[in-house]
Amino acid sequence: MARLTEPAPAAVAPxxxxxxxxLVAAGVAALAALAVxxxxxxxxxxxxxxxxxxxxxxxxxxxxxWRAPLYGLLLYLPVSGxxxxxxxxxxxxxxxxxxxxxxxPAYLGFALEVLRRRVRLRLTAAPAALLTMLTLLVCLxxxxxxxxxxxxxxxxxxxxxxxxxxxxxxxxxxxxRRDLSRVLLLISVTAVLPAVIGIVEAALFRAxxxxxxxxxxxxxxxxxxxVFTELRLPSGGVLHRVPxxxxxxxxxxxxxxxxxxxxxxxxxxxxxxxxxxxxGAAVWLLMVAATFTSGARVAFxxxxxxxxxxxxxxxxxxxxxxxxxxxVRILAPLGxxxxxxxxxxxxxxxxxxxxxxxxxxxxxxxxxxxxxxxVDVTWLGLGSxxxxxxxxxxxxxxxxxxxxxxxxxxxxxxxxxxxxGVPGLVLVLAVFSALLFRGVRRHLTIRDPHLTTISAALLxxxxxxxxxxxxxxxxxxxxxxxxxxxxxxxLAKTAALDRAEALT
Length: 504
Fold this sequence. Notes:
It is a single chain. The chain has helices at 17-39, 43-64, 67-76, 81-86, 92-95, 97-117, 128-141, 150-161, 166-173, 177-190, 192-206, 210-214, 221-224, 249-270, 277-292, 299-316, 326-344, 348-377, 397-401, 412-443, 449-468, 480-503, and strands at residues 230-232, 238-240. By secondary structure, it is mainly alpha-helical. The chain folds into two domains: 1-6 and 15-122; 166-374 and 398-503, no CATH class. Strands 1-2 form a two-stranded antiparallel ribbon. A hairpin with a 5-residue loop joins strand 1 and strand 2. Helix 7 (128-141) runs antiparallel to helix 8 and helix 11 (192-206) packs across helix 15 (277-292). The longest helix has 32 residues, at 412-443. The two termini are 21 Å apart. 48% of the residues are buried.
């Protein structure tokens, strides 16, 4: 990883009161502009004014302290769908809000700090050579003549590469154990609101009050809920697509699923042995319940898998902290699963059978069959962005998907073949293999049991998301596209913190 000498504690000045006041005032002004414009029937204008104010504040804040926009990003992600819903159907600017207000200012501030210190970066905790090769391939494929226009290629570059630097920025974002505990606390606490709203919406669906759920979303209700999808299971019960504070139900599922390992890390890694531990456990189980009631069948595979991998990694490393037994940490979410199945009106056995059928179908049809089709269409790729949903802003679906039957291929790994070809698939697999192998190797060196748990949870998150890419495109979508690379940086820093503490 890039080695950047952190300033001595004495050199870190507290944030000036004037800058605090400026950032608070800018935030209030942005919210006021959005509220007034929405109340007067001009939400798009309000969103534009609010976005300009927020962007100016973020750039100023990022230049002074590049960590401030990253904290803002973590606070914004749980409610990132609200500006999109407020400006529907003119959502282009709102979709990019987090990039211009938070991510770009953080990159700019971090780059300026590196230049100011004149430090030579040595990239050692991520597969830098492989990522460089992938970057070159993605940029070359953006010029592929098979693309309908160059804007599609530009969108492809953005989707592929824009958040990868978060692995490096995220590494330096964490300076010590206190920083790590602080961000886990921040993420866990801010996740409660979307989870509670989602569970309440699921309860309203179950009680037959679907109209009550749809009403606050207005014209965006169909887009947010997958055209009001009600998935009736053969064994009985109905899964309703729950959007909560997000612009689509898939983003809500991706968010609460991401929070399952994060809140586990906060509970077991930061709060173990403390009175607040019961609060951490409650928030973790809340995220488990929110994921099971999100309306996504994949939740019933992803949650048990990520928890099982986490517990296994805990015990192949140091001894796990605290007195909570492994079987308790497995049985508790299983109990939530049984309750969720009963809540949804289906038996656990019936749900398990349906999920098993869906898993087999997703693997054989969505992945294997589609992969064969993709290889038949192209060995060398059709260009970055050709199978990317965000490219709909630059070209009509018939232009994007005409080369392979006029349909969108859902498997992320199949998308790799269609856009980058078989060489791109080999390169992507090499990147993920190197990232996970290095993560496991560093995890096994950690001595501190609390850091072991945090490392295990982050590593399990990365591993399970790579597996989910077999049939789902979550790596392209908010918020997992952000969390994946940010957590990769935090994973590397967790091992570095353990080494540093062992030397003191």
